[in-house]
Write the structure tokens for this entry.
Amino acid sequence: MMIRDIPKPEISPNFTIDDIHKLREWNYETLKDATVEEQVSYYRDGARRFDERMAALQAARLHSA
């Protein structure tokens, strides 16, 4: 199957319950036709990007202190 390329929904500045519903629906629509392997890859890639971002923020914080 495949992971669908669906634009992320607009999120309000106050982050309401409606925003949570929009994100959950977007996530479902994005992954509903994906194989288990594609889903695992999708989540691992997101986790890797998150780890890289957190490491960069931590390094910047240590250099500014």
The mean pLDDT is 93. The radius of gyration is 16 Å. The chain has two helices and no strands. Residues 34 and 40 are 10 Å apart (CA to CA).
